[in-house]
Amino acid sequence: MTAPADLHVNHRSLEGRRAIITGGTTGIGRAIAVLLAAGGAKVYICGHDAGHLEDALACIRAVGEGDGMVTELADPDKVRAFFDAGEAYLGGFDITVINASIAAGGLTQMDEDALRYAIAVNFTAYLLSAHHAAHRMTPIGDLILIGSLSAHILGPSSTVYAGIKSGIAGFAEALRRELGPKGIRVSLIEPGKVGSNMQYPDVPDEKQRQMIAAEQMLRGEDIAAGVEFLLTQPTRSVIQQLVIVPRALEGE
Question: Is 223 a member of any domain?
Answer without folding.
Answer: yes
